[in-house]
Structure formats: structure tokens, C-alpha cells
Design brief:
This protein is an alpha+beta fold. The protein is built from 17 helices and 16 strands. Strand 1 and strand 2 form a beta hairpin. It starts with a helix and ends with a helix.
């Protein structure tokens, strides 16, 4: 029996007789190759991934600190040269809550990649390569997988043949893509609609409502005609802002909008742009369009009829730009950073609809005008409040850039401190303790202003414990994650390297305290098992990964619960084995037990092979409770979001360990 056959039978044996009958080796992606001839010397090496069911494959282009990106490597040869980098189809983009809403690009059902090569030797027939990739579904992730790929140049296909097959494969994917994007687009619309109402309450727009409605009702011979003209006026506003959204989408395109969400320099530009908008709203200066534009539009508005009404709406957009411009700009930034090409269009529709509705409604019911509050200093206060909000939002984009570059200039504590300062200053402003350039004298505080001030005060106080490690779930999508901080355990606490130490537990060799839970954990199997024998506790093996989405969900949503955390900290010894750990071996790398003839590249691969050979599965997260003889105490479990079920599993294993004594 040769070595390859032996290991194959070993995997089959452990799969069948494992204590967990649900365990299995998963391989949800199959790869096929083809070659497209471009010219006599240029060819496209085409790799197609066919993805099973609910699994998704990650893109080649992902930020650091997230899932593992797909990567292609090609054998070095003097017979050909690579032309640029491998390309890929559009795919999906969505925020990933487990990685602090990082925008993640992935593929479902199928994906096609292309690498162009230029032949030096026209007689070349075979090109060898390798693909490394990671896949996940809603309950598990698989470790980085490495597969060989081979291209036969002599069996090239024409691009038309490959494209036809690609179109056929993408038919079912398009419908799923539409469904998955609905939620994100609805969020953009809702936010834009609220922003439109906020723009109505600025000094550039609010006074125009009674003036414009009165103009239409007085100039029209009948009430019905006045209402019709006001409705046309409102529709013209919607058309103008929709055109703006269409232009942004057309200029950038889908690929560029995806880049906006992940590119460092775009995030820095957005940060600076929002700072300018905030300064404008706070009264430092006004962002104005050229007066000549307004004069030319006013002349066109005098023409009357439908054309005149449209130019009246355009005049409103130009004249009110100093108030609406920063809001529109922020909306376009937010929509664009979502990666959807129609996001800016949806955003502009929601914004313009909120502005247009009052003109039509007040024209239909002019008596409502009497219920409108009078213009005054409160309108400028609305601008100032929006300015503070723009200022706070700006630092989210700077934080994105900082985390990608890993510069640690804007860590969690600094970010939270900035937000405390911004919303603290907003609270003082609402209570009348701060005055800005265009504010009117404040003799008393209205009930509405006092109420809003109390809300911002409560929010400011709520954020303060975040400096000492509080999770701040209400704003979890905005600040950097807890591990990206000066001290993962909070300011003033130096557990495992922090401020004044508050934890006196002696950390054994090879262990560390896992942030932010304070769980004593090992990343080396042998050292962890030896320590468990020393302290006479069972072992919990945690097959996990740095890029495992569902592992983070378990740690953030299940491990933090008091009953579960108590067991993990006091009743078991945790050994976390990261299957995607990319640390190279010291000295000669060991042979792979599952790929005979291949060497292991990284330490994470040995933990992945350990999981496959011993437990017959390759999915993460995967939790095993064992005794000192490395025997299972109860059946292993995978992703278990139910806290009670997971706690009962832990207690069962610990109880079985104690009963063996």
C-alpha cells in the first residue's frame, strides 16, 4: 500500500467512525481551466470556479484584516511572461459585521478569472499554476485551500465561446444579486429621505416653501392649475437631483464605486471633503456656486410654462447649494462607498423626494402654511447640528484608511475620544454655552432644543466607558474594533501589555490572554495539552481562523455571555488553532500528510490537516472537548449561535471529565 492510499483510507476511516457523525470533508468549489487565443503570441488563461449552494468565494481584492483573498500563482518560466494581474468578474460587495462592517467582495454560484500571458516560446503547450482560496457560508468557513491548475495552450477556445458559457452561468446569479442588494439600497433611500427633510429645515430652503407655494397659487387662475404647477415644480426638483446621481454613477462605473469603499486614498479624500462640508455648516465659510449660473437660470425661469417651472426648480437647487451641497455631497460619498452603481441614483431620489413633497402638499392645502414655524435663528442651528454630525462622520473614513495601512494613528481610544469631544461640544452648543458666527442671540432654550441637548448629553456619557473597554454596541459599526487599540482591555489596564496592571494571574509559557474576553489561551497544541494536565482541566480545541467570519460571530455574540465566559475562563483550557496562520516554519517545512509530495507552507496548514485527519472535517469554527488522553468528552460541535445550547455542550463535556476522575 503506497503512502497516498494510506492517508486517503485514514481520512475515510476517521470520517466514518468519528464521534460526530455530521463531520465531513467539504469541498464546495470545483475549478476548471480553458485558454482563449487573443493573438499569435497572447493568450488568456481562464479559470472558472463553480461554487456549491449557499457557499461564497472571496475576491482577489480584499482589505487586510478581513477574509482570505483568492490568489493565483503561475510557475516561473522563460517560455512566457505574465501581462498585468489576473482579472475577475464584478461579483457582490457587502459590509461584513464580523469585521466591523468592512466592505467584502465575494462570488456566488460561479466566478471567472483571467490571466493574460505573452508567449516567448511559441511551441509552449502547458502552463502550470496554483490557486489558493477561502470559502464561507452562513454557518462555517473553510481554511485556505491550495489546488493545482493546468492550462493546455494547444486546446485554446475563442473568447466568444467562453463568454457564452459565462453568460449562461450568470443567469441564476443575477436574480440573487438583485435580492441581496435590495436591503442596502433601501437603507440608502431611507437615509437620503431623512437627509432631505433635514435640508428642508436649513435657512436656504425653508423660507422658499411659503414663497414658492404662494407664487403658484396666486399666479394660477384656478386652484387646480396652481396645484398642477407646484407638482411639476416638485417633479422638476426630483429630475434635477436624479440627473446628478446618474452622472456620478456613469462617470465612476461599478468597478470604481467598489474601489471607493476599500481604497485608502479615496477614504482620505472623503475625510477631507467631509471636513470642508462640516466647516461650511459650522459657519467658517459658505460653499457657493457662481452667481452667473443663478442669473442665467433666473432669466430662463421668466419664460413661463413647463420650461420656466423647470428652471425655477433649478434656480432653487443653485441658490440653496450652500445648505444642500454638503448634504448632497455626503450622501453621494456614503452611497458610493457602498459599492453599488445605482446607490447614488437611489440616494438622490430619496433626497429630492423629501424636498419636493412639501411644495406639492402645501400647494394642495395652502391652509397648512399657517402652521409652519416662522423663520429665525433656529434655522442656522439646524445647519450647525448637521455640521457636528458631518464632523463626526468624517473620522469614520479616516479610520478606514488608518486600519488598511495599519498605521495605528487613529486607534479605538483616540476615535472614541474625538467623538466624545464632538458630541460634547454639540451638547454645549444646544444648551447655549457655545456661540458660532451666524447664530442669533439666544435668550432662552426651547423645549425641542433642550430635549435634543439631553439626548446628545446622554450619548456623550454613554461613550465614555468605551475608553475603558466597553463594547459600545450602539455605535459598533463606527469606531475601530476593540483589538485595534492602544490597550485591548481598555485605558489604564495593561493585561498582557497595557497600563497599570489589574490582573495578577501568572501567564504560563506559550499562553496569552485573548482580547477582549481575558480567556487564557494557547496557540500551540502540545503546550496547551501539557498545561491542561498540570492544572487538571479538560481541553477545548478551537479550530478557528483569523479570517473566519463565523468564528468572530461566535466570539462576539456567544463567548461574551456570562455563563459561557465563566466556563471558558475557569473550567477548561482553551487551545485556539488558527488554520489560516501564515507563519513559515523555522528550518525545513514538514511534509503534507494530505498532499503527498508537497511541503506545508505555513503553520496553519498543520492545524488544518490535524482537524481533517483526526476529526474528519475541515470547516471552522469547530469545537472539541478532550481529556488528557486526547479522547473526546462529548461529540464536537460547529457553529452554535444558540447560547443555551452551546453552554449546555460545555457543561456536558466538563461534567464528563470530572466523572472520569
Amino acid at each position: 500500500m503506497n503512502k497516498r492510499t494510506f492517508y486517503f483510507l485514514l481520512v475515510i476511516f476517521t470520517t466514518i467512525f468519528s464521534s460526530n457523525v455530521k463531520a465531513q470533508i467539504l469541498d464546495p468549489v470545483s475549478w476548471s481551466t480553458s485558454v482563449e487565443k487573443i493573438s499569435e503570441t497572447e493568450y488568456d488563461l481562464v479559470v472558472k470556479a463553480t461554487i456549491d449552494g449557499s457557499w461564497h468565494l472571496y475576491s482577489q481584492h480584499l482589505e487586510e484584516g478581513g477574509p482570505v483573498a483568492t490568489e493565483f500563482t503561475f510557475a516561473e518560466s522563460e517560455d512566457y511572461t505574465l501581462v498585468d494581474s489576473p482579472t475577475e468578474e464584478e461579483g457582490h460587495s457587502a459590509p461584513e459585521p464580523a469585521f466591523d462592517n468592512m466592505m467584502v467582495k465575494y462570488f456566488e454560484n460561479s466566478a471567472t478569472f483571467k490571466q493574460r500571458i505573452k508567449l516567448v516560446n511559441k511551441e509552449l503547450s502547458i502552463v502550470n499554476g496554483e490557486v489558493s482560496y477561502m470559502v464561507c457560508n452562513d454557518s462555517k468557513c473553510l481554511p485556505p485551500t491550495y489546488k493545482d491548475i493546468v492550462f493546455n495552450i494547444k486546446t485554446e477556445k475563442t473568447p466568444a465561446t467562453t463568454e457564452a458559457k459565462k453568460d449562461e452561468a450568470n443567469t441564476s446569479k443575477e436574480s440573487k444579486e438583485k435580492d441581496s442588494s435590495k436591503k442596502g439600497l433601501f437603507s440608502i433611500f431611507f437615509l437620503a429621505f431623512l437627509s432631505g427633510f433635514a435640508a428642508l429645515l436649513t435657512p436656504c430652503v425653508f423660507p422658499m416653501i411659503p414663497m414658492t407655494v404662494s407664487f403658484f397659487t396666486k399666479q394660477s387662475k384656478t386652484k387646480a392649475k396652481g396645484i398642477r404647477n407646484a407638482v411639476i415644480y416638485g417633479l422638476s426638483i426630483i429630475i434635477i437631483y436624479l440627473l446628478l446621481g446618474i452622472i456620478v454613477s456613469a462617470v465612476f462605473g461599478a468597478d470604481a464605486l467598489n474601489a471607493l469603499s476599500t481604497n485608502v486614498w479615496f477614504n482620505v479624500i472623503f475625510f477631507l471633503l467631509l471636513l470642508v462640508f462640516a466647516a461650511s455648516f459650522l459657519g467658517a465659510f459658505e460653499i457657493m456656486l457662481p452667481n452667473s449660473w443663478a442669473n442665467k437660470v433666473d432669466k430662463q425661469a421668466d419664460r413661463g410654462g413647463l420650461v420656466g417651472i423647470f428652471f425655477m426648480a433649478l434656480a432653487l437647487a443653485i441658490v440653496s447649494f450652500s445648505c444642500t451641497g454638503p448634504i448632497v455631497g455626503t450622501l453621494l460619498v456614503q452611497a458610493a462607498s457602498g459599492g453599488s452603481q445605482i446607490g447614488p441614483i437611489v440616494g438622490m431620489f430619496g433626497f429630492s423626494l423629501a424636498i419636493a413633497l412639501p411644495f406639492a402638499l402645501f400647494a394642495a392645502f395652502p391652509g397648512w402654511l399657517n402652521s409652519l414655524p416662522k423663520s429665525g435663528g433656529w434655522l442656522n442651528s439646524v445647519k450647525v447640528v448637521l455640521g457636528f454630525l458631518e464632523l463626526a462622520l468624517a473620522f469614520k473614513f479616516l479610520s478606514n484608511a488608518d486600519m488598511v495601512l495599519q498605521m495605528h494613528l487613529l486607534e479605538r481610544e483616540v476615535f472614541i475620544a474625538i467623538w466624545i469631544a464632538v458630541f460634547g461640544a454639540l451638547t454645549l452648543y444646544l444648551f447655549g454655552k457655545l456661540q458660532l458666527p451666524h447664530d442669533s442671540p439666544l435668550k432662552h432654550i426651547s423645549v425641542g432644543r433642550l430635549s435634543l441637548g439631553l439626548v446628545t448629553l446622554a450619548f456623550t456619557i454613554y461613550m465614555i466607558p468605551g475608553l475603558w473597554g466597553a463594547p459600545l454596541n450602539l455605535i459598533s459599526a463606527f469606531p475601530p474594533p476593540q483589538h485595534y487599540s492602544e490597550s485591548p482591555y481598555g485605558v489604564g489596564n495593561m493585561q498582557n501589555g497595557g497600563g497599570a496592571a489589574t490582573h495578577t494571574q501568572e501567564i504560563p509559557e506559550g499562553a496569552h490572554l485573548m482580547a477582549p474576553h481575558n480567556i487564557l489561551a494557547f496557540n500551540d497544541y502540545e503546550k496547551g495539552l501539557a498545561y491542561a494536565k498540570k492544572v487538571n482541566k479538560p481541553v477545548m480545541i478551537d479550530f478557528t481562523g483569523h479570517a473566519c467570519v463565523n468564528c468572530r460571530k461566535m466570539e462576539q455574540n456567544v463567548w461574551v455571555k456570562d455563563n459561557v465566559l465563566d466556563v471558558l475562563k475557569n473550567d477548561v483550557i482553551l487551545i485556539s488553532l488558527y488554520v489560516d496562520e501564515k507563519i513559515k516554519f523555522e528550518g525545513e517545512a514538514p511534509d503534507s500528510k494530505l498532499r503527498p509530495g508537497k511541503k506545508l507552507r505555513y503553520t496553519g496548514q498543520q492545524w488544518s490537516e490535524l482537524q481533517q485527519i483526526r476529526y474528519g472535517t475541515n470547516a471552522q469554527p469547530y469545537y472539541v472537548l478532550i481529556d488528557h488522553d486526547e479522547e473526546n468528552l462529548n461529540p464536537p460541535v460547529a457553529y452554535t449561535p444558540d447560547v443555551t445550547e452551546y453552554h449546555n455542550w460545555l457543561k456536558e463535556g466538563v461534567g464528563n471529565f470530572k466523572s472520569k476522575k
